[in-house]
């Protein structure tokens, strides 16, 4: 990690790791939690609410092609794989090679972790294949990642890439519109985050309560606040 990463919009990575449905629900919940504070976050909500509303409209236009459906699209597979990669790195790769300057770790991430985590639909196959080969074939003895697990991901990604060409032009336009709007919502979420930090700069962890990140339970088990607000996402 470099100092620069402290100033990056981490909501972009969150959006990449979630389905369209889940990310929309997350953004809705954040907005609902902020609205409970009355006028405290009026400026942030003035930006965030229209962005979320537009994302919901585009999501509804996508209809049954939403990423929660059984027929997963390429973007969903990209998100699922990146979520898998983050978990695998945390549980297996980083413990095996804890120093980011280790030759093995540099070989696994030749362009840094961002080179993998910022993969998209245009380069996911090559980047994922390289990464999976490194953590299994090359350094599998140290990481313990099963070759069969990597092979399954390669097949899933290849199938998704091949299936991309079966989408109609209208479907591709809708998917691209959602991607673009999600980035705008990430900007709005980051503005909201900085607003909570400004309000709670003496106790910045208090801002955590407004953001129900995945697996947040509001209990000490996950390090979240006991008073985690429960949002009421609009349908």
How large is the count of helical segments? Answer: 10
Q: What percentage of residues falls in helices of 4 or more residues? A: 55-70%
Strand content: under 5%
Helix-strand category? mainly alpha
Q: Let me know the average pLDDT.
A: 80
Q: Sum up the overall morphology in one term.
A: globular
Rg, alpha carbons: 19 Å
Order of helices and strands: HHHHHHHHHH
- The CA-CA distance between the termini, in Å, is 38 Å
Strand count? 0
How would a textbook summarize the main sheet? none
Unreliable stretches covering 5 or more consecutive residues? 64-72, 164-168, 217-235
What does this molecule look like?
- The protein has 235 residues and is mostly helical.
- The chain is 62% helix and 0% strand.
- The protein is globular, with a radius of gyration of 19 Å.
